[in-house]
Predict the structure.
Amino acid sequence: MSTILVVEDEPLIRDVLVAVLADEGYSVVTAGDGQAALEVLTREVPDLVLMDVMMPRLDGPATYRVIRSHAHLDQLPVILMSAVARPMDLDPAITAFLRKPFDVDDLLPLIESVLSRPQDGSAQAGSA
């Protein structure tokens, strides 16, 4: 069973993501912002991070840069999601970007695709 860290500051969206992912058999850990996500990552390393771009304290792109700066996390797949267009300054090596609002029929195949990729650093940026 794969574990997904959902990093989302909006409780309703976070709860929906948890319910959908749990229904699909994933183990889900949550964080309300980037700082909380980094705290979770000191305790456990999930198989995937699904993270909002715009959040308080530490936003998604800043959190992504911190994640990538740690050797034990540098290959951790990260899907960033946002209601605004893909930020121009977003690292082109980001695993994938998902525009909100999204359909579960787009989210789940993207997650499955990312989790099935070899984690050797060769994953290219993607979108749904």
Residues 3-116 form a domain with the Rossmann fold fold (CATH 3.40.50.2300).
